[in-house]
Fold this protein.
Amino acid sequence: MVNIHPSALVHPKAQLGIGVSVGAFTIIGEHVTVGDGTSIGSHCVIEGHTQIGRDNKIHHYAALGGVPQDKKYNGEPTRLEIGDRNTIREFVSFNVGTAQDKGVTSIGSDNWVMGYVHIAHDCRVGNQTILASNAQLAGHCEVGDWAILGGHTGYHQFVRIGAHAMIGGGSMLVQDVPPFVMAQGYPTIPRGINAEGLKRRGFTSEAINAIKQAYRTIYKSGLSLDEARLKLDELQKSAPEVGILNEFLASSQRGIIR
């Protein structure tokens, strides 16, 4: 059974799963699919080629699947894909992708997205992340699993935030933040590793110590990044977690914060 408020406008071709609820004055477009058990508040607009998974909680005034804020966009049928069990709070906006990238903006599962967050075209957000109020992602950004983005933070196009990283409030990111690293400020600088978060997620003390050693190699040893990566090659033989960090460094296009 679907519970749709009488004042909501739902296109006849939209696909709503079992147990979906739609609040007052919400608009749902033709190419939208909503999974079982998802609740949608009042005054929301969900449009474009948007696929939403099951058991999401979408609060009032969310705007999902709108066209990109990109002058190159020319009406191509690009997509927005949202996973399961996400909490999406008030006045959040997610745009569909562009043909200049993979054509899809993707948000994983079990994310906590607070009010006024903007996720622009072609962004890729993983699972179990927290995006605090007014975090603003420009186009093509990537956010790894378990990352925490503080409130009132800005992210330049193509910036990548590694898994388990934590960004302090009020920061402005123009370069990548490696996995496990805490960062804050404008310009944003590294502030150590997210040791407490790693403990809460079950990382062993040995793994955390190896990550700390890798951090010191990158940021405290005086080595160039290429030299530091050679040291990490050795360290990751006994600590697989360091391999995640090293792989991120190898694929960084904008360079990492220093």
Q: What stands out?
A: The radius of gyration is 20 Å. The chain has four helices and 28 strands. Helices lie at 195-200, 205-219, 225-235, 240-251. The mean pLDDT is 97.
